[in-house]
Amino acid sequence: MRPRVSVQDSALRNGNFSLRIDPVRSEDAGLYEAQVAYNTKVQSCQVELGVITVTLSPPSPVVENEPVLLSCNSSHQASLVETCWFHNGHPVSTSGTFCSSHGSLSIFRPAVSDAGSWRCQLRYSDGEIISAMYSLQILGFDGPTNPVVYAAAGSAAD
């Protein structure tokens, strides 16, 4: 996993034998075990790493009015009960524009206003709730609805 993993040697003296993985990949999910030997003592611990991914299809960049699919997947083993989506912190309701189905969200005609922070929240049968964020960028025209713009002579026009 090198060079994505590191251990802070300076923290070892204080009993901190944490492992840092950056960036985490889907295949990193699983059980990790650490063993530290000091004099005649051996300390060990186990940590399970779960990974959640949000993917975009087709991949970026998203072009205004071209359908896109956001998918949210987790390494959690229980059955998925519910998927909720949030855009810029607000819940997204299924409508003519959005359709949510088993971990995925279809945006049929994405607009520039759909750009921003998207969060999927997965709820499982064992009560576990997992969420992840995705920053969506959309290429399009974010100008006036009227294509005629007036500007005073000598001033700037956008």
TrEMBL record:
InterPro entries assigned to the protein according to its UniProt record, in alphabetical order: Ig-like_dom (IPR007110), Ig-like_dom_sf (IPR036179), Ig-like_fold (IPR013783)
Gene3D superfamilies from the UniProt entry: Immunoglobulins
Claim: RNA-binding is one of the keywords in the record: no
PROSITE patterns: IG_LIKE (PS50835)
Keywords: Adaptive immunity, Cell membrane, Disulfide bond, Glycoprotein, Immunity, Immunoglobulin domain, Membrane, Repeat, Secreted, Signal, Transmembrane, Transmembrane helix
GO cellular component, one term: external side of plasma membrane
Domain Ig-like, residue spans: 50-131
Subcellular location as annotated: Cell membrane; Secreted
Entry's Gene Ontology BP terms: adaptive immune response; interleukin-15-mediated signaling pathway; positive regulation of ERK1 and ERK2 cascade; T cell activation
Alphabetical list of SUPFAM superfamilies matching this protein: Immunoglobulin
Topology relative to the membrane: Single-pass type I membrane protein
Record-level Gene Ontology MF annotations: MHC class II protein binding; protein tyrosine kinase binding
Subunit note: Interacts with MHC class II (MHC-II); selectively recognizes stable complexes of peptide and MHC-II. Interacts with FGL1 (via the Fibrinogen C-terminal domain).
Protein task: May function as a ligand for MHC class II (MHC-II) on antigen-presenting cells (APC), promoting APC activation/maturation and driving Th1 immune response.
Family designation: Belongs to the LAG3 family.
Protein's name according to its UniProt entry: Lymphocyte activation gene 3 protein
Species of origin: Corythaixoides concolor
Gene name for this UniProt entry: Lag3
